[in-house]
């Protein structure tokens, strides 16, 4: 797919390379800073026309430089503006020094700022260059501002958010609005950073898009642009076998609901046929609940092996309510040559046996999608989970590579990653998606997309987006059943 600026995001390191490329091409870096700072002042005036005072907090680098430009522009527009600086303003270098020289307002020391009612803070302490925990002076002012409730407009990122990971480096502002430049960064999309950005405005400061695209990795916001060219696979004209046969494995009689939710979601999401594969003990319970979903007795590896001779059976979901243990492992290892969504107990069953699974996937070459939440991720990828230096995106990418599968690392900021390093962060999921059975529904939707022939990364990304849309449509009181009912067509 050709890259456009519309749904890509870049790491701070990539953005630094973009800046360098722009400078080498002859673009004046100070004119970029002027555009950036002016955009911030325009946003502040647009959002807070009634502000009594704009208080610009300027840091020691170019983020601070943007702040001086914004302060000067606000003052020129007739607003009341005060500037406070972290560190010694005389020590600023390059464009930031130039911006400060052109700002007629004398900065006071950061410690001197006490928030007043009617203030609007322009946070220009740190942006993409935050390299360690914020210093004490910044921590103190962040604490005072957050406690006061005065609104904050953040320049590039709320200071204290790590742009690469979204983590809070000691303390961070909670912004009402963030103006970033050219493209979002992981810190705008990953939690907890995302929740502290407020509304996010991506402003084009005039760097040609080709420079951004040229340095961008394969990181995307999960929007339909990412996968819509594969929707042809979901052909509404096709007969039911062509629309894909999805098989969902069910566990024992005490926990059959989860698998039925996956199966019902798979049918609703467009699989032509859905079969629930059930052990003998749960057949009667399942039979009394199912209508359109078919039922098949699969009571052990011999049954499964016979069933798998039917090559039309291409796609499986295993995990929801299945039970943790040897049966799960045996079944999964037999399914590694097919398309398989491995969820919940299916993942947990490979705790301390993960290498066997990853080797089998590599040998058999099936299309496996794993859907761990945080707890499950830690069970099957303990080494990666424990590496605190990695962002959630980097963890999902490492897990995808290690396991030869597509990883859907769930949560409010679900990351979908492929072994190639391609990754997407999902942003449309409302918090009430966290309801019992919601993950089972997601597994069924992914299965339906796979059954209809979508490639695994796109099948998973489209399913996560669709699950989010279903949540939005179902509303705050959503239950898993309502998510199925509310699922929009693609
Ligand atoms: N993208 C673009 O195209 C454009 C980007 N622009 C803007 O540039 C911003 C990036 O600027 P930047 O690279 O100078 O980084 P910034 O965030 O100001 O911080 C660096 C300074 O902070 C210091 N420092 C760091 N951590 C610290 C800590 N914990 N505690 C104390 N100090 C710490 C660090 O010191 P050092 O680590 O070097 O000792 C250095 O002095 C970007 O966010 C955007 O606003 C625009 O001007 C237009 C074009
Ligand atoms: N705070 C949140 N905001 C949005 N989506 C969330 C949030 N928390 C969880 N989710 C989503 O809800 C689903 C929960 O799945 P899972 O944890 O497997 O739950 P269950 O086992 O109850 O089905 C996942 O798709 C996850 O991404
Ligand atoms: K900032």
Automatic annotation (TrEMBL):
Residues 223-490 form the YjeF C-terminal domain. AMP binds at residues 410-414, 439. Residues 15-213 form the YjeF N-terminal domain. (6S)-NADPHX binds at residues 62-66, 127-133, 156, 258, 321, 373, 440. It catalyses: (6S)-NADHX + ADP = AMP + phosphate + NADH + H(+); (6R)-NADHX = (6S)-NADHX; (6R)-NADPHX = (6S)-NADPHX; (6S)-NADPHX + ADP = AMP + phosphate + NADPH + H(+). Binds 1 potassium ion per subunit. InterPro entries: Carbohydrate_kinase_pred_CS, CARKD, Nnr, Ribokinase-like, YjeF_N_dom, YjeF_N_dom_sf. Transmembrane segments: none annotated. Its EC number is 4.2.1.136, 5.1.99.6. SUPFAM superfamilies: Ribokinase-like, YjeF N-terminal domain-like. K(+) binds at residues 63, 123, 159. Its cofactor is K(+); Mg(2+). GO terms for molecular function: ADP-dependent NAD(P)H-hydrate dehydratase activity; ATP binding; kinase activity; metal ion binding; NAD(P)HX epimerase activity. PROSITE patterns: YJEF_C_2 (PS01050), YJEF_C_3 (PS51383), YJEF_N (PS51385). The keyword Isomerase applies. It comes from the Bacteria. Keywords: ATP-binding, Isomerase, Kinase, Lyase, Metal-binding, Multifunctional enzyme, NAD, NADP, Nucleotide-binding, Potassium, Transferase. GO terms for biological process: metabolite repair; nicotinamide nucleotide metabolic process. PANTHER family: ATP-DEPENDENT (S)-NAD(P)H-HYDRATE DEHYDRATASE, ATP-DEPENDENT (S)-NAD(P)H-HYDRATE DEHYDRATASE FAMILY MEMBER. Bifunctional enzyme that catalyzes the epimerization of the S- and R-forms of NAD(P)HX and the dehydration of the S-form of NAD(P)HX at the expense of ADP, which is converted to AMP. This allows the repair of both epimers of NAD(P)HX, a damaged form of NAD(P)H that is a result of enzymatic or heat-dependent hydration. Catalyzes the epimerization of the S- and R-forms of NAD(P)HX, a damaged form of NAD(P)H that is a result of enzymatic or heat-dependent hydration. This is a prerequisite for the S-specific NAD(P)H-hydrate dehydratase to allow the repair of both epimers of NAD(P)HX. Homotetramer. This is Bifunctional NAD(P)H-hydrate repair enzyme. It comes from Sinorhizobium medicae (strain WSM419) (Ensifer medicae). The lineage of its organism: Bacteria, Pseudomonadati, Pseudomonadota, Alphaproteobacteria, Hyphomicrobiales. The gene is nnrD.
């Amino acid at each position: 797919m050709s890259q456009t600026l519309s749904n890509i995001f870049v790491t701070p390191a990539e953005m630094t390379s973009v800046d360098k490329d722009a400078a080498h091409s002859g673009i004046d870096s100070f004119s970029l800073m002027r555009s950036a700072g002016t955009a911030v002042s325009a946003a502040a005036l647009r959002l807070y026309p009634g502000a009594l005072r704009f208080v610009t907090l300027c840091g020691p680098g170019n983020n601070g430089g943007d702040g001086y430009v914004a302060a000067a522009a606000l003052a020129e527009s007739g607003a009341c503006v005060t500037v406070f600086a972290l560190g010694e303003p005389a020590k600023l270098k390059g464009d930031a020094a130039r911006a400060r020289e052109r700002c007629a307002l004398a900065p006071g020391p950061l410690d001197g700022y006490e928030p007043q009612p009617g203030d609007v803070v322009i946070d220009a302490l740190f942006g993409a260059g935050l390299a360690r925990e914020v210093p004490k002076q910044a921590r103190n002012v962040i604490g005072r501002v957050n406690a006061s409730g005065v609104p904050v407009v953040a320049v590039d990122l709320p200071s204290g958010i790590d742009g690469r990971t979204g983590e809070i480096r000691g303390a961070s502002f909670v912004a009402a609005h963030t103006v970033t430049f050219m493209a979002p960064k992981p810190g705008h999309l990953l939690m907890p950073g995302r929740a502290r950005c407020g509304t996010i405005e991506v402003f084009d400061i005039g760097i040609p898009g080709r420079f951004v695209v040229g340095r961008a990795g394969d990181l995307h916001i999960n929007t339909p642009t990412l996968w819509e060219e594969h929707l042809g696979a979901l052909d509404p004209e096709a007969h039911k076998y062509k629309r894909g046969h999805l098989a969902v494995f069910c566990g024992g009689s005490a926990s059959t609901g989860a698998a039925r939710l996956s199966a019902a979601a798979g049918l609703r999401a467009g699989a032509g046929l859905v079969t629930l594969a059930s052990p003998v003990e749960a057949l009667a319970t399942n039979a009394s609940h199912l209508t359109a979903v078919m039922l098949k007795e699969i009571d052990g590896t011999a049954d499964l092996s016979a069933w798998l001779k039917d090559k039309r059976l291409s796609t499986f979901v295993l995990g929801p309510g299945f039970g943790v243990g040897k049966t799960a492992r045996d079944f999964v290892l037999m399914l590694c040559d097919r398309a398989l969504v491995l969820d919940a107990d299916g993942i947990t069953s490979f705790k301390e046996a993960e290498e066997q699974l990853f080797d089998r996937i590599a040998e058999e070459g099936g299309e496996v999608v794993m859907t761990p939440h945080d707890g499950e991720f830690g069970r099957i990828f303990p080494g990666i989970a424990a590496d605190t230096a990695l962002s959630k995106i980097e963890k999902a990418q490492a897990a995808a590579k290690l396991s030869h599968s597509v990883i859907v690392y769930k949560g409010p900021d679900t990351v979908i990653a492929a072994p190639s390093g391609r990754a997407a962060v999902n942003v449309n999921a409302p918090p009430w998606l966290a309801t019992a059975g919601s993950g089972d529904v997601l597994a069924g939707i992914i299965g339906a997309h796979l059954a209809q022939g979508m490639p695994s990364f796109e099948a998973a990304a489209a399913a996560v987006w669709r699950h989010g849309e279903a949540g939005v449509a179902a509303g705050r009181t959503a239950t898993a059943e309502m998510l199925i009912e509310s699922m929009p067509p693609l």
